[in-house]
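Quick question: what would this complex look like in 3D?
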Amino acid sequence: MHNNRGYHQEVMHIQRVANFRDRVAYLGNDMAPLGTSIQNPDIEYHKLAESMGWWAKGPIKDPADLGPAIKEAVAVVQSGQPALLNVWTQPR
Amino acid sequence: MVDVIKTLDIKYMPCNPASSFRGLHESLIDYGGNKQPEFLTCMHEESAVGMAHGYFKVAGKPLLTLCHGTVGLQHASMAIYNAWCDRVPVLVVGGNDLDAAHRPPGVPTIHSAQDINALVRDFTKWDDTPVSAQHFAQSFVRMYKIATTPPFGPVMMSLDAGLQQEPIRENGEKLYIPRFVPSSPPQGDSGAVKEAARLLASAERPVIVVDRAARTPNGIKLLVELAEALQAPVVDMGGRMNFPKTHNLSRPANIIGQSDVIIGMELSDFWGVVNSYTDNGDNGVGFNESKIKPSTKLISINSVDLNTKSNYQDFQRFLSVDVSMPADAEATLPALIEAVKSAIPDERRAAIAKRGETIRKAHAEARENEAGSGDRLGREPDQYRPSGDGNLGADQGSRLVARFVRRKCQRLAEPVVADGAAPSLAGRLWRLWDRLWGAGVDWRGSCQPRSRPLLCFDPIRRRPHVRAGRALDGGTT
């Protein structure tokens, strides 16, 4: 899961309209929090998947953890089970 | 547009963001400061409309939701239908890019339509597609006014994406924001109010049945006043918080079988109040049975009669009533209370007071039973054991929660176990049968159907009969 915590396309729309209107877009921290981001709290999608019987892991925030997690997930899928990795990514 | 929206004091705006309303979204945040309304990010349009629906039922004020034209509105549509059925105002604005020559090709064009409002026109009170800023101002105030005039209901506006981004051109005309003045709710005809009062005042066993009657806390006070004037029991169907459950005139629905006059206020299904429908007749055909005596007089006050549409069947079965007032119940109550007070003859006052005493006693007994003797089998919540299959039956769960809530907060108490005599022989037999065969409500309500001998009603011979063990299936729901 490419979890950028956002409806990132919509952030760009807000920025585009603000530019067009020649005013500063209030975009909060690293993304627009107002109607375009899914944070506070951060949704634990891996737990959602587990509740439905999936193997899942996350949130993976350190790139060093990603490779081993993918290996684990691949082994799970090869055994015939679905797997979800909740991987945090940059907004864009 | 934001200036117009702000005049209506709308607190929140639950929305799933979308490019087709980016112009208004940016304005609400960067010009409007994300206040009145405040954007609440939602993951789906259906839940966004659901939040607006629930908020109104608690706060009594409508919310605005924006959705993507076509696909967002398709998502929203079931929740809009729910709001329509529950007569709740929700302000829905759908972004829609109308200009085929200038809108972005590809997905934004797939997500555009000539008339997005057509999707929900059968279950909204009103809709519009403004084509100028001034047109928006008029239509937005108008949609708010229509939505918040009883009978309430959701309203829809298709808002052109081009118009959202166009600079304001006044063309020599000064733009203005129309002032919102709420419409007065429709009150029952004075002749019909008088006739209803006459029937109620002379009734031996009048019953008041309410569903969406109290729009405001004052509606609750008025209902108490009417019930006390008549010393009549009140059955609250629960569509709104109508009547305090702790009031000694609050009674369960099974008392209506004894009534000679029933006044139904804002009932979503008056037919269903005075009839029963059983979906497990022989040959797979359901059957109807009246719960009341043929001589029982029926009075209806219902604002929904003023706004019925044809396609969707939320108006329920047709029922002939003796006095029919297409009017708002809460607005009609003051006149009705006065008319009832003057219609009660002096010689009936003692009998009415005696009636009140009887009801009070039954209410007190029921509450005592509720508090002291556990459920139908006399069990306290901590004595509940999972049924044979290891699951808690649906009724056990709901009783457990209800009893916990009752102990914690008496004011929220809700009698769950119906008391008193069931209205018909078949009904009484059913209760006996249910008692004998345990606490399950397999017949309907339990998600764990069990196999047991069934008590059925034979619609041809019109008598109950026993059918040997058969697990009930989902067809009974």
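Answer marked as accepted. DSSP finds three helices and three strands in chain A.
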